[in-house]
Design a protein that fits this description.
With 176 residues, the protein is mostly helical. It has 7 helices and no strands. It is 77% helix and 0% strand.
């Protein structure tokens, strides 16, 4: 929709301008007097435009989308996606999850928040690693090693995001 080359780096101000221009052209209000088919098409195009904009504007969503273009759909929660993750990381995930469970049971918000600080830093590192691999794929799209590197990094990003959501839910529960 935005006629961009699939790449990790996006000129966000330019994207925002294009989004505004396209939104004005496609907005359903402009088609209020049109036929039902044209109104439906306008709504469908506006919905697709909004989804494309959200995906391209957010670095994590953009990374997952680019990896999907390379044949790896990390958004699916299937066993094959989990098998791609290194065993050491999966073991680490179990340990972190157990530690968070203990903090939640003990109502130790300070401990959970300290874990969240550490996980946030690790999430940023994983996102940067994924970005680096995806940038490399721009030049060599068939590089299986870079695809693997990006998928492992984005797997960590996904896990860390869920972990942080659990800490946030615990914070809300404690403060309620």
């Amino acid at each position: 929709m935005f006629e961009l080359t699939p790449t990790y780096d996006v000129d966000v101000p330019k994207l925002e301008r294009q989004f505004r221009d396209l939104s004005l052209q496609l907005h359903p209000d402009r088609f209020a007097q049109a036929s039902p088919k044209e109104r439906r098409l306008s709504l469908e195009q506006t919905t697709a435009l909004n989804e494309a904009y959200k995906t391209l504007k957010d670095p994590a969503r953009r990374a997952f989308y680019l990896l999907k273009l390379h044949g790896v759909d990390m958004e699916r929660d299937d066993v094959s996606a989990q098998k791609r993750m290194p065993q050491a990381f999966l073991e680490e995930v179990l340990e972190l999850r157990e530690e968070l469970e203990l903090a939640v049971k003990a109502r130790d918000l300070t401990r959970a928040q300290a874990m969240a600080v550490d996980v946030t830093a690790r999430q940023r590192e994983a996102q940067a690693e994924a970005a680096e691999a995806l940038r490399a794929l721009t030049n060599t799209p068939a590089d299986a090693e870079q695809v693997k590197k990006a998928s492992h990094a984005l797997g960590r990003v996904r896990y860390f995001t869920r972990f942080l959501e659990e800490v946030e839910a615990f914070e809300e529960e404690v403060s309620a």
